[in-house]
Each structure stands twice: as structure tokens, then as C-alpha cells.
Amino acid sequence: MSLLVTLNLSYPIVQAPMAGATTPELAATVSNFGGLGSLGSGMTAPDVLTSQIDTIKSLTDRPFMINLMVLSKQEYTTIDTELPAWLSKYYQDNTIEFTLPECPAQNFAEQLQVLYDNPVPVASFTFGIISAEQVQRLQSLGTLVIGTANHPLEAKAWADIGADAVCVQGVEAGGHRGGWLPQSESDPLGLLTLITQTRTCTDIPLIAAGGIMNGQAIKAVQTAGAELAQIGTAFLTTDKCGINDTYKQALLDASQDKRSSETRLTRLFSGKLARGLLNDYLRDFAEFESADTLPPYPQLNAMTKFMRAHASQNMDAEHLSLWAGQGVALVKQESTLELLERLVKAL
Fold this sequence. Notes:
Number of helices: 16
Helix content: 40-55%
Number of strands: 11
Strand content: 5-15%
Largest sheet: 8 strands, parallel
Strand order of the largest sheet: 1-9-8-6-5-4-3-2
Order of helices and strands: HEHEHEHHHEHEHEEHHEHEHHEEHHH
Structural class: alpha/beta
Radius of gyration: 19 Å
Shape: globular
């Protein structure tokens, strides 16, 4: 049975989770339209997550997806690296106060418990893989489980533990890379190559993500072997998205030749590879772009949070993480519904 049928979708469109950018209203709007709306909840406290799930359930009776970041207890509880000297100097030079938290990220075990206590139609996972027992427990509650993969071996690993589908994320994708195996970083694959190679090692249903901005691209990934297309960057400049105006304007400027639309994979914001618009921060500190010397994710993410908050307050796009995929030049200022209607018109 196809994912379109299993999920009761009218259109092969998944709105990407995008933690920090998505809202319950965005997810519900997409789901009510006939796609699969989703909420990126990896940075959300468990009690807030419960409330947001309840909000989505009040706004739609259609399937929706909650996405969590798979982190070990060691990862979400530990800060055991020093603040980099260059970042410390930046804070001093700009009179930015900071106090590192005791824990650099949300408690993944408690977030997952929310999905057991308040079941959702679809749960997806990124940055790692859960256990077969956890997959089965979610499925027993009526939840479809979707993994994220940047490499065919990661997709196969999700298939082997019984996931219902895998989102294969090409190198074109904006924001953080979802994979966890060394191979996904050493030789990042473009989306069509990733779909083709994944198809040779598993027949699990695939959702394609990375650089998809229009109906023609949706049809292309379906032809290549994916059932659904996951779209992120295109939604960032729509009305239901939760990003701040400075970030949104930078994306629109990139689409109107008012700033470069060049994107870059970087660890400088979080310690984990993520694609965003090139800005002064990435240029000024490029020499420190090394997995060997930077604090790991999520530690560096907790350390740069104060810079990003300061930049947001001062409408400074040059020190924000302007996550965007390689299709960013095609974004438009439009309502979420206008984007959805534009996408399906070409299908």
C-alpha cells in the first residue's frame, strides 16, 4: 500500500519539520490542504510539546507528523568542552552576556515519552536511529514511524528495525543533515543519486527531501523512486511559518538578487553540518570550520545561542543561522495556501 493511501493524503507533499521554524498552525494548514504537515520538535520542552500536539489536534483531524532529534543521554546532558576562544572574544567585543545551560539540549527520552502518552499519526526521527522496540511501541499506538537518512546504509538500518518509511535527504537540503553514519558526511550524495542507490538496497517507501521547490521537482523525485516529496525552504517565507522577519527577509533578498543566494554546509553554528545562506559569521570564522576543533553538537549549538539571540534582537542577519536549501533563489512571499496551490497545479 502506498504512503499516499496509508496516510490518507490528497497530494504527495510533506512539509518539512524544521525545528524552530514550524508552528502548529503551519502543520495544520498543510494537513487540512491534503498534504502531511509537520512540527519540528527536537528543541521543544516535553510539556510544551504536549500542548502543541493538542493544538494541532484541535486544528485538524487529518494526519500530521512530529519530528524529534535522536540524542543519547550523554549528548543532551553534557557540556564537557570549552567555549571556543574566538567565540568568547566575539561575545566580549559585542558585550553579549552568556551563561551556558547545565544541559545543552532537550531530554530526548522525555520527548519520546510524550509521543507514547499523547500518540500522533506520524513520528519521524533525525540525527540518529531509535531501537526496534521503540519503533514497535509507537506502531502499537497507531503511529507510523519515519526515519531520516543521508546515505543508503542509514535507510537500510531504518528498514531493518521495521520503520514504515524513510526520508532520504540529499545534500541540497537546507538546515541540519539528518544522518549519523560517517559515510553520510565523507561523501554527501545528491538527492537523485541517493534515491537511486537506496532503491538498490531496500524497498522501504521513500520520502525525498532536498532542493524541492516546485511541482516539477516533485514529479522528478517520484519518477526516481520516491513516493512523497518533503519540502522545507519554500515554506519558510510563507505566512504560517514561525521564523523572525530578519531571517525571512534575508531569504527573500536572496531570491531577488539583493544578497547572494549561495548556501554553505557549516558546523560553525551548532557543531553539526547544516546548510544555510552564506553570511558574515560564516565568512569571518571560516578558519575554525573543523570537526576536529569545534565543540560537537549540541554543545556548540548551546554556546552560539546567545549570538543568535543578540542578532535576532538587533535585526542582524549576518549573525543568524539562515538555514536554507540550494533552491532558496525560488522562494516567494506568499501565503502557505498559495504555495500549496502553486505546487499541486503542476502535478
